[in-house]
Amino acid sequence: MPAFVLMGSGEFMPWAKETDRWALDASAVDSDRVLISPLAAAPEGDEVFSQWARMGIEYFEDLGMKPEVLDMRMHEDAGDPSIARAIEGARYVFFSGGNPGFLARSLRDTAVWKAVVAAVSTGTPLGGCSAGLVALGVVAPDIAAMNEKRDPFNEGLKLFARGYLQAHWDALDGYMPGLTQRILDAWPSDSVLFAVDEETAAVGDGTDWLVTGSGGLTIPGLDGLEHVPAGGRVSVDLGLTLS
To answer: DSSP label at 9?
Structure first.
């Protein structure tokens, strides 16, 4: 069964250990290898990329795993067959935060992304935090374009073909005034809003979800938007596509 960790913020922090243990326990792969990709942060430079890599290694070592960093910093790297082969046999694959649009562009139609989808289809859990969450849906905003007031709403990876996935939901207007409404205005009519608060995650199989952490999950309800608090369970079909 597929398994996903969709995290609003705070990867590699103490609050997330219960969530990531859920993924490790849910894995169909009997291995201690965890793969970490800070690819979404690559535009911020080598120092930032390396910082996220170190944090991920220390975090998963503390969970008793043997983490490895996927050294991808651009689209060409994600086409490297040797990196794609590393995906096979991993117990868990995790994409940390950064720029969702850059992450989606870098992975689309690559050997690595095809290997990730194949691994998920055979029981390797996939985790994503912030950009690593957002890029999996139908739209992956480009942060650089947003800051420059250009149209930021690029195509996502569409692993969840109906999912309009959002992170930092309870804090967006603190980053940029009016950002929440801007995102709501760009909501594609044929998709489902799935918005995760900071230090919060939704874990599940693509349809049935458990909310963990300190915040909540915002989804469409019968009378506007519905907030599902931590500990809540909800059924939301995001249109998982593994082909």
So the answer is: S
